[in-house]
Amino acid sequence: MLSKAEIRNRIWKILEENDVARFPKPIWGRIPNFVGARKAAEKVAASREFKEAKVIKVNPDSPQKPVRYLALEYGKLLVMPTPRLRKGFILLDSNKIPRRAFMEASTIKGAFKYGKVCPLRSLPQVDLIVVGSVAVSREGIRVGKGGGYSEIEYGILRSLSLVDEETPVFTTVHDLQIVDDAPREEYDLIIDYIFTPQKSAKIKSKYPKPRGIIWDKLTNEQIRRIPVLLELKRILKN
Predict the structure, then answer these.
(1) What are the boundaries of each domain within the chain?
(2) Number of alpha carbons in the 13 Å side-chain half-sphere of residue 79
(3) DSSP state at residue 216
(4) Per-residue model confidence as pLDDT tens digits over 77-87
(5) Are 121 and 89 in contact (CB under 8 A)?
(6) What's the CATH fold of domain 4-237?
(7) pLDDT in tens, 109-149
(8) Does the global pTM surpass 0.85?
(9) Rounded-to-integer distance, Cα 219 and Cα 33, Å
(10) Which of 8, 27, 44, 59 would bridge with 32, disulfide CB 3.0–4.6 Å?
(11) Which residue, among 97, 20, 109, has the nearest Cα to 60 in the 3D structure?
């Protein structure tokens, strides 16, 4: 089985060679944007889980921008982590944003403009999570870009009981990003549903999702760089 680093490099190369990678470039080191990202997002929006969700958390990467836009378009409360979690989470209320500004608000810069950075104690219960991936296995094992931020974000929400094992986790990827196998770590976020421009696939995974932050997997430097982890520690201590 290939390592996660090998899988990343292979997928980035395949996407470029098949001319399905899109801006921003280079895609190496990123959650890659891809041809058909909007179509994959529309499949998410057509799902029962999306329709029933009141609060949706979506990562800030480019290929999930259409998902963030559709969340606002459909009147959802949108939770967006800031890049590398430096500023924690932004809350965007579609009812408080002019409709003409939904596209701008679905960008990182626009989210800061139209949303508000939300303290952990004020975050709402999350009904659906949508994450970006470099690759995802047919068993739902996600391979990110290597920083572990989606896992940390999930761990924070799980530690605060704002999500649980039953909270669905979706990813939107190009069909070429689906791999047969990927190595799994105990902190890996398991995907329940894969959406591509061509298809939707429900995963029947045998693996559980992490139950919270696995503190002994984090270095002091990582905790120092992510202030919300210190905020979480204070909340859990009290």
Answers:
(1) 4-237
(2) 27
(3) G
(4) 999 999 999 99
(5) no
(6) Rossmann fold (3.40.50)
(7) 999 999 999 999 999 999 999 999 999 999 999 999 999 99
(8) yes
(9) 30
(10) 27
(11) 109
